[in-house]
Structures are given as structure tokens and as C-alpha cells.
From TrEMBL, chain A:
PROSITE patterns with a match to the protein in the record: ABC_TRANSPORTER_1 (PS00211), ABC_TRANSPORTER_2 (PS50893)
SUPFAM superfamilies attached to this UniProt entry: P-loop containing nucleoside triphosphate hydrolases
PANTHER family: DIPEPTIDE TRANSPORT ATP-BINDING PROTEIN DPPD, OLIGOPEPTIDE TRANSPORT ATP-BINDING PROTEIN APPD
Biological process terms in GO annotation: peptide transport
Membrane topology: Peripheral membrane protein
Segments forming domain ABC transporter: 10-262
Keyword Hydrolase (UniProt): yes
Record's keyword annotation contains Cytoplasm: no
Keywords: ATP-binding, Cell membrane, Hydrolase, Membrane, Nucleotide-binding, Transport
The enzyme's E.C. designation: 3.6.3.-
Protein name, UniProt field: Glutathione import ATP-binding protein GsiA
Higher taxonomy: Bacteria, Bacillati, Bacillota, Bacilli, Bacillales
NCBIfam families: oligo_HPY
TrEMBL record, chain B:
Entry superkingdom: Bacteria
Family indicated by similarity: Belongs to the ABC transporter superfamily.
Gene: gsiA_2
One of the protein's GO biological processes: peptide transport
Pfam families linked to this entry: ABC_tran, oligo_HPY
The protein's name: Glutathione import ATP-binding protein GsiA
Taxonomic lineage of the native organism: Bacteria, Bacillati, Bacillota, Bacilli, Bacillales
Residues covered by the ABC transporter domain: 6-256
Amino acid sequence: MSMTEQKELLQVHNLETTFFTDDGAIPAVDGITFSLREREILGIVGESGSGKSVTSLSIMGLIPSPPGKITKGEILFEGKDLTKLKEKEMREIRGNDIAMIFQEPMTSLNPLFTIGKQLNEAILLHNKGWSKKQATARAIEMMKLVGLPRAEQLIKDYPHQLSGGMRQRVMIAMALVCDPKVLIADEPTTALDVTIQAQILQLMRELNHRLNTAVMLITHDLGVVAETCERVVVMYGGQIVEEGPVSEIFKNPQHPYTKGLIQSIPDMRVKKDRLYSIPGSVPKPGSIEIGCRFAERCEFAFDRCTKENPPIYQTGEQHTSRCFLVEEKERELNV
Amino acid sequence: MSEPLLKVTGLKKYFPIRAGIFGKEVGQVKAVDDVSFEIRQGETLGIVGESGCGKSTTGRSLMRLIEPTEGEVFFEGKNVTKMSKEELRKARRDIQMVFQDPYASLNPRHNIQKILEEPLRVHGIGDAKERKEKVAKLLNIVGLSSYHAQRYPHQFSGGQRQRIGIARALMTNPKLIIADEPVSALDVSIQAQVLNLMKDLQEELKLTYIFIAHDLGVVRHISDRVGVMYLGKMVELANSEQLYEKPLHPYTQALLAAVPVPDPDFKRETELLKGDIPSPSNPPSGCTFHTRCPFKMDHCSKEIPMLVEVEPGHSVACHLYKDGLNNDNNFAKTEG
């Protein structure tokens, strides 16, 4: 694999998204830097409150404002900084270049219109001058692409007549009608049953391969990451704590949080008497001002962890970790 | 062997489908359709299945939170389905539930003291002082502190709320706890904490659990025996080891194969299931799984397979095993 040779399609630089609430300014995303490469599937993994969804909404320009606002940093896509675009320009990018699918397909579909009408609307919006007939033909083609059976009849159905898995396929079809370069999928399979989840993940891998769409997959499930992604970004408390190729992260996690997270998954293949569990709970966003966000739950924490903010260390060619332990280890090796 | 703590025979729950302005019954949803099983004192029975398989309805029917259509439930030899209202109220002291969503199952206007005391007041146990002591004691047991009693649900995190939900279930010193998806709303790191807590409590207090969940990994870690449900029927019931190492029913095999494995080098061997779960209001004839089954035979769409014990402790409802385990027709047998 030549992951290094792939061009960077989307670059997020020092992004900070703040929510201004009655309790003060809360940085939900706090200075993150990463990039999405051409044709890859990048996983963004984290628990609730880690900032993973806010990251994706920031990229799409969909942060509800007020109370939210991008307060720092830039998001570069094809030479343009998305954070500086006007709403009208952003609308051009959304759908045409960057598309998004969400967790619950039922809330993203309009219950009053048929599937066909909704797909047509998306197609006609982005292909000015097309006839309705052309649009319908394209809709049927897209539905076949995402593996929906009886597409010709299905376009006459309403969303409630479809199952959860079929609805998510419709959402994927809708996201792909304009052949976007980037697809952001925010927990696309969380609301689905396991057997259906497996189908949707397989579909996303196939489409990524066939259409060369780069995918940013946001999930809380490390199992989904292991099966679907090439690289992964681990988020905690609004920051990126570790980043690297999936194979390396699972075999050789560098950050204690990643380690703990991997160990606490109840793996179906082995029976453990006790599961490893990370003590405590996720801190409220913005509650920790100085020091490592994970320090109070970390079994390896030492003085420095609560007094200084750990920088990002390079631990491998493509592997980084935001933890002082990297420095400690190196020091030990040098002595 | 001693008498089972709970024995369920032929449990059915059909919900009517009504239509028209007069609410005429036009059909039935067979949410639970002829389910039988037993639980011994001190063990954990896991019930797994996808949405609409009837696992939650089963859990609720046992306590008659939903009145079963047919079938019998024996708790310590007494027939729960025949109990009068008063008898049932008393029996519910011994059977308690823990629910999925700790945000929805705790009254936001009551403080924790009041929430936890409620079961005691309902059952008329203890005076004010004793109740207060009991609340403090149980908060400690589930890993919280007695000063938490004065707080309100919104002041707690999801994991802490689920601990409160567990404490509430334990207030009446129950023998059996029915936990319906108790950890599925929690983050992975918190989920492990709650699972470990439930295991510890089981040992300390000699509890018996029915653990209903859709996550097969979670179920394996907590259960001694596991039942797999599909469209209202129990299709396989076995010791946890047997079920995960040697699943027999094609549905169980497919279900296990669909779980994402946290190992990038893992290669999947079994093919993915095609199609969707059929609607429970109009289930397929014969074996309800035949529409998706890779090993479907002619008579599968005609005859309903019975749950039969094919080896000690391992029952399966599938025509492939009609003549026992060691048959050439057992295509579905797993290798290795």
C-alpha cells in the first residue's frame, strides 16, 4: 500500500468550534488537525462528547449558529477555506463535492414525499436543465447502484414503507447522486441491526472502491473501524489523541485512552471473566483547562500530565500520539 | 437438579392490528410465539436477537407488565400467569427490571432518595429511617456515595444513572432481575464498568439475571446460557460456550458472522445474510427464517421446526438437525 502517495483531499487545520452557552464558551472541538486523503476510508472514533460529530458538522458548515461557531482554524478543500465561504458558496460544495449521511435515515427523509420525488429533487438541484424523465432514470440507476431491489417500484414508495436498512441505502444513493469527492458518514449503521449493519458497511466499502469516493466514517464502534477503515483518528475531549493506520493502532496503540478503549470492547470471540474498564467518566467539554484531558482517568498519569498540555508526538511514519509517555519512553531508550 | 427458579412454557403474546374507524381487528403481530425456557437459581440467561424479534416483549411478559396471550410462567413453582393482582404485586418484589434508557426511566422531578425509596413504599417495607439507611447502603453497593441521594437524575452521567437504575431494582432484595438492554445506551468504556458491576452483584447477592441485549459480545461476557430469538421464536438455546463456539442454527451463524470484530486482520468466512427481517405481522410460513436461509430445503417453508435438544444443554429449532447432530445433512455445521 502506498498511502503516503495519496493526495490530501481535505485538510483540517487547528480547527476550533465553540458553543456559546449560558454556562460559558465550550470548545467542543479544540484545535484539531488532520486530513482526508483521496480514495481512502478514514475512521473518526470517539465516545459521546468527544467532538467527532461536531467535527463533521463543522466541515459541512452545518454547525447551528447561534450557539455554535467555528472560532479558529481552517478547513481546506481544493484550495478553498470552507470556513470563509458564504452560505451560497457552501451550498454549492455540499452535495456536489462533499455529501453527508446521518445516523437515523428516517429523520433525514421527508415522510410526505415518495422516495423517487426526493431523489429527483436532489438530482435536479445539482443538474440544472435536466428533464424529470432524465432525473428519474438517474434515480433508478443510483438505487440499483446501492443494491436496492425493485427500484422501478420503490421510487413510488414513501419512506415509512421501507425498512431501516433500505432507508439508509436510499440516503447513500441520495448522497452519491452528484458523484461527490467526499462522503461523510456520521454513525451510519448505529441505528441498524447487526446483519443489516454488515450489509451497509459492505456497500460503503464497495462504493468507495468503485467510485473512488473518499469516506470519512464517524463511529463509536472500534469493530466497525477495524473492518472498514484504512486509517483512524481517535478523539477524546474535543482533541485528537491518536492517529495512524488501523493495523498499527490496533496492534500497537500508543495513547492510554486508545489502549483502554480497545481492551474494554467485549470481543465476542473470547470469554473474559472481567472486562477491562476505564475508571471514571468522560469529562464535560471545556471542564479541563490545562493538562491532558485524559489524565484523571489514566493509569499511567504522572505530575506533568495535569500541569502541561501534551503535544502531538510522532511515534511512527504515519502514527501520532498526544501523550507524554512517548517522550518518557524515548528518554529511557537514550539513557 | 433442583427446581428451576423460573420456568416458562409456551409463552405467546399476540398484539392485535386494528384498522378502520371502529378499530376492527384485521390481523395479529405475533411478537412472542410459543417460547419456552427455564432459568436456574444464580445463573444468567442471555436473550439476543435483532429488533422486532420479541426479546423485550418476552422480558415484559414474564412479570406481566404485558399480559401474555397464552402460556405459563412459573416462579419458584408458583404460576405467575394465574396470580391475582395482590399476589402478583407481592411476587414483583422478587422480580425486578432494569431498563435500557437511564434517561427515560428515572423521574427527573424526584431526587435519588425518592426514586430509590419508591419500591419500598410500594411494598410497604421498613420505616422512614430504615428506608434511608437502605438507600445509602445500596448507593454504596453500586459504586456511588450516600450524599448522591439528595441529587436529581440530570446531575448524573449515563453510567451513573444506570447504576441508580440497578440500585432501584435491588431495593426490594429481588431474586431475579430482568435487564432489558441495560448497557446499550452507554459508551464502551462505561459499558464495561456496568457489566463488571452486574457480575459482582450477582456473586455477592446470589442474583439470577435475564439479560436481554442485541450486542452479542456483551451477552457472551455476562451469560451462562444464551437464547437466540428470531421473529418471536426461540431458534437456539445453549450454554454460552457452545453457542459461540459451535452455533448450529443458520440464523445464529449469520448473526455471529455479522458482528464487527475489533481486529483488522480478521477475515470473515461466513457469507453475509441477504435481505431484511420480514414483518412480524406477516411472518413467513414454516420456519420463519427460510426466506433468508442459505440452507433452505423444500419442507422448510411448510413445517414449523420445534426446539429440540440435539446435544446436552444445546437446543435448536431447525430441520437440518431433525435426525440429531451427526447427520450428513448438517450442511450448516461449522468447521473447526
